[in-house]
């Protein structure tokens, strides 16, 4: 990244930083905490329509606590879709470890 682009990024960050700080301080109340994660792998080995075909599916149930209230978030996905999500996350991690990202993190 050129020095000029880096300076533009820095100036944009400095413009929004005070507002971001305000939101962070306003939201300093009780934080959301992880309570439990249940998961299950279901494999359908055949139906009337899908003879001799398997259909693996992953089910996740995430329980969070925010203050005195708790909430449950459910996710149901195929293993193929889950593999796509994992690949995208791996690419994002690789990108975050790039030289440009490390230079930006040193500035801020």
Word description of this protein:
The protein is built from 3 helices and 3 strands. It is α+β, with helices and mostly antiparallel strands. The longest helix is centred in the N-terminal third of the chain and has 24 residues.
Average pLDDT confidence is 81
What helical percentage do the residues reach?
40-55%
Q: Please give the largest β-sheet.
A: 3 strands, antiparallel
Kindly name the structural category: alpha+beta
The strand count comes to 3
- What Rg, in angstroms, do the CA atoms define? 22 Å
Low-confidence stretches: none
Overall shape: it is flat
Spatial strand arrangement across the major sheet: 1-2-3
Give the helix tally.
3
Distance between the termini: 15 Å
Order of helices and strands: HEEEHH
Q: What fraction strand?
A: 25-35%
Summarize the SSE layout with pairings.
Layout: H1 3-26, E1 32-44, E2 55-66, E3 69-78, H2 79-96, H3 99-107
Antiparallel strand pairs: 1-2, 2-3
């Amino acid at each position: 990244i050129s020095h000029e682009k880096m300076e533009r990024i820095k100036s944009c960050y400095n413009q929004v930083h005070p507002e971001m700080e305000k939101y962070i301080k306003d939201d300093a109340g009780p934080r959301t905490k992880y309570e439990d994660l249940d998961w299950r792998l279901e494999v359908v080995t055949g139906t009337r329509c899908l003879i001799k075909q398997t259909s693996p599916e992953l089910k996740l149930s995430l329980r969070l606590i925010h203050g005195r209230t708790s909430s449950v978030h459910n996710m149901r996905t195929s293993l193929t879709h889950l593999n796509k999500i994992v690949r995208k996350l791996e690419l994002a991690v690789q990108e975050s470890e790039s030289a440009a990202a490390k230079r930006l993190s040193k500035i801020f």
